[in-house]
Amino acid sequence: MKVLVVGGGGREHAMCWALSESSIAGQLYSAPGNAGIAEIATLVPISAGDIPGLVDFVERESMDLTVVGPEAPLVAGLADELAERGHAVFGPTRDAARVEGSKAWSRALCEKHGIPSPRSREFEHIRPALDYLEELEPPYVVKADGLAAGKGVTVSEDRATAQRALQDSLVHGVFGEAGRKVLVEEYLEGSEVSAMALVDGANVVPLALAQDHKRALDGDRGPNTGGMGAFSPVPWVDAATEGSIVESVLRPAARALQEEGLAYRGVLFAGLMVTSDGPKVLEF
Q1: CA end-to-end span of the chain, whole Å?
Q2: CB–CB of 17/69 below 8 Å?
Q3: What is the value of pTM for the model shown?
Q4: Which positions ≥6 away from 35 have C-beta within 8 Å?
Q5: 96: phi then psi, degrees, rounded to nearest 5
Q6: Is 263 helix (H, G, I), strand (E, B) or coil?
Q7: pLDDT tens digit string along 246-258?
Q8: Is the dihedral of CA 284, 139, 154, 109 positive or negative?
Q9: Contact call for residues 145 and 102 (beta carbons, < 8 A)
Q10: Omega before 32 cis (within 30°)?
Q11: How do residues 54-80 score in pLDDT, each as one tens digit?
């Protein structure tokens, strides 16, 4: 079996390593890959964002399966392009990937289908966003709507920092198209945990929970990043909490996407805050 892994980070290195251990995956390729991946797979000099280039390679080399790591090519429609040409792909369609590609769309999905999440309001203009901020008490949470490589979220104890975050997105365009809309959200108290599941539409197979760390600097004093490290399993999560995560978040989310007519196939990732009221979705 010929398998292409799209992406070039640590996540893709881990996936390539796991695939290289499989007796099913014979020839392994990665686009663009990295130095570590080069030890176990053939690197292909095509960027993860080059959708036509990736589709052309899959067709030309007759790949049996394409596994997409990063979110950006999924939001750009790589899975759609491959599926339309009859190629097997592990990763959701463009429309289903909106669950990560648009935080506002994701929040609306949660509200419609009763999936626990923080209260939030969305804004496209600076004045009403600043006015709404005046109604809230700290800490403040400001999120760019679209993909911002993990850097589009500001959690602030002071209003001035939150105001600057709104200005950066809605006035200065720091996050480009991703920041043309923002969410101002309720701050949740609790412990953060990451929940993942393999999803093929209706079926949900939960994976081990993990705890990742996004804030830079010791003591979480720095800005949010795409990730500063993670560990699994998570010792403080008991069986009852884990069961609640699966039954109140992961299964309802997969069911909600299916009811919306969206083909979600791949890994569904939920970043959660475990609060005194149970788990709530920070992001998908």
Answers
A1: 31
A2: no
A3: 0.88
A4: none
A5: -70, -30
A6: coil
A7: 999 999 999 999 9
A8: positive
A9: yes
A10: yes
A11: 999 999 999 999 999 999 999 999 999
